[in-house]
Amino acid sequence: MQLRLLLTTNGADDRYAVESSAGSARSWKADVIGAWRRSSRPTHRFRDKLDVIVYFNGQFAPKDDVKVSPDDRGFLFGDGAYEVIRSYGGRLFKAKEHFERLQRSLKALRIDGASVERLSDIARDLIQRNDLGTTDAALYIQITRGAAPRNHAFPDGQTPPTVYVAITPFQPSHQKWERGIKIILVPDRRWTRCDIKAVALLPNVMASQQAKECGAAEAVFVRDGVITEGSHTNFCAVFEGQLVTHPRTHHILAGVTRGVVLELCEKLGIPYQESVIHQERLREASELMILGTTTEIMPVVQVDGWQVGDGKPGPVTVRLQRAFAELVNA
Ligand SMILES: Cc1ncc(COP(=O)(O)O)c(C=O)c1O
Fold first, then answer.
1. Which of 96, 197, 267, 312 is catalytic?
2. What global pTM score does this model have?
3. pLDDT value of residue 330
4. Is 185 exposed, middle or buried (0-12, 13-18, 19+ CB in 10 A)?
5. Is 158 helix (H, G, I), strand (E, B) or coil?
6. 195 C-alpha vs ligand 1 centroid, how far in Å?
7. Domains of the chain, each with CATH number or no CATH
8. 3-state secondary structure of 4
């Protein structure tokens, strides 16, 4: 007999319903099953996809049981917004800032009806259900305009958005943070609303693949001779001790990590400026770095084959990395 495990959230009365293929269902209190899951879980079991619990449209369920409609506008048009949040030892880092940005993205895309306020409870629940309370993990949230017959214009107001949240263990890149990485520069062929964290990421995907094929870790975009940001990171350069990063315009995503780094500069007395970096000045920089939620503060030691400074992470980068590590572990 085939069993299907459905996990629903009803506040305090949180139940797991086990449904047989014949349709009969019975429920157990979550804490009983929860205790079973914890006691019988070998440490590596998360890797078994059947075992991973995700949140999808109001329910917690094994990832393999999630059925996304082929009519979903996220699938058809990339019509949605997303967020990625790091959890350090079970604690979400800068969750408020990520949720605020998600609200801004949804507002800009005019996607209504998703309860962003519920997401932090869902995230905490997922951390617990997947036994990631003491591990480093990355939370992924995606909200699309929902499923409706294919039509470019929005469906009617009755179409509920699709909400998906998943968490996976995160493997920190210690070696790369210590040694630095290579990047390539590529033309910025994206639209002009890069401030929206939209699911549609084709130019970013193409650029990232190009970097991979060149043996580089990131592709950094250049628009009209100006360095904007990476395919999934923000970009900073250090000129004569001053950190410079692209201003918060529609040409970049206002990264949460970028915000944290600017706060750290303020705290540590590192001079900084939000102004454009011209590609032709890049070789004058003593240090370069890319920033992101999973990338953290990553030194860049090579650009298109030429070496940055002495080819090692510079002093400003290292100071920021240390302060960042203190912050996330505080
Ligand atoms: C295009 C782009 N820029 C910048 C970032 C960095 O933003 P955050 O620090 O909030 O992760 C990301 C992260 O995914 C990104 O996709």
1. 197
2. 0.86
3. 85
4. middle
5. coil
6. 10
7. 1-40 (no CATH), 45-169 (3.30.470.10), 174-329 (3.20.10.10)
8. strand
